[in-house]
């Protein structure tokens, strides 16, 4: 204990009904405590919450217990309207009760299946999720990377010209490839014009399953209306 130089252990507790010189007889013995039956204290009977203190009951104290607390059948005469508390459970073996067949039949079976929630990924930070939602995103990302590289090479070429240094080879290769692509596109246009071909029209997008079902239902409804009109 804090701020205690000497610790004295608890001795026996003497419970008396009539004080006939008991307090004077035991007051000099260290550790021994005395208490009246009508003033029983839980801190004296079980100090520190530990049950099992050695308690000495006098004959007069033992006889007075029934008058103070009564019995299971009669109320206490010295206390108004007081009776001993009745136990709620007849059988206190809780583990045996829970494992009994009567209670098991009423209870539902335990849910042992593990349900794991699907993780929702952010398409703005996760490329795989973005490509699953929008496959054309790969083309836009690639075009953005190529345009960024072109701007970088053009900047480097301008700086090299200002400083009187040779133009980087990557810039020359990029210009050559872009010229070849433009020439190929011009040839294709001229060839299509000479053949009199029109630019290919955009093909309609394939119908979804929901749209197909709607079209089938609309067709059936039209046939039914036609039969009703034709009927006399």
From TrEMBL:
Is this entry keyworded Phosphoprotein?
Answer: no
Q: Give the record's GO CC terms.
A: ribonucleoprotein complex; ribosome
Organism of provenance: Diaphorina citri
Q: Quote the Gene3D superfamilies the UniProt record gives.
A: 3.40.1370.10
**Source taxon at top rank:** Eukaryota
Q: What is this protein called?
A: 60S ribosomal protein L4-like
Positions of region (Disordered):
183-212
Gene Ontology terms, MF aspect: structural constituent of ribosome
């Amino acid at each position: 204990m804090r701020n205690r130089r000497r610790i004295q252990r608890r001795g026996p507790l003497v419970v008396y009904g009539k004080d006939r010189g008991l307090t004077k007889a035991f007051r000099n013995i260290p550790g021994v405590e005395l208490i009246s039956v009508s003033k029983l204290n839980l801190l004296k009977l079980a100090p520190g919450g530990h049950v099992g203190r050695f308690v000495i009951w006098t004959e007069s104290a033992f006889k007075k217990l029934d008058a103070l607390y009564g019995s299971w059948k009669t109320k206490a005469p010295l206390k108004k309207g007081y009776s001993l508390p009745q136990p709620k459970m007849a059988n206190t073996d809780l583990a045996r009760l829970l494992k009994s067949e009567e209670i098991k039949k009423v209870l539902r079976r335990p849910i042992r299946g593990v349900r794991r929630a699907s993780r929702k990924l952010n398409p703005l930070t996760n490329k795989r999720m973005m490509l699953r939602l929008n496959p054309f995103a790969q083309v836009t990302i690639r075009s953005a990377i190529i345009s960024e590289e072109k701007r970088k090479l053009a900047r480097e070429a301008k700086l090299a010209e200002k400083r009187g240094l040779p133009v980087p080879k990557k810039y020359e290769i990029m210009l050559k490839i872009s010229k070849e692509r433009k020439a190929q596109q011009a040839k294709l246009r001229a060839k299509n014009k000479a053949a009199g071909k029109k630019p290919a029209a955009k093909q309609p997008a394939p119908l979804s399953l929901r749209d197909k079902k709607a079209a089938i239902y609309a067709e059936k409804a039209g046939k039914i209306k036609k039969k009703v009109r034709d009927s006399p």
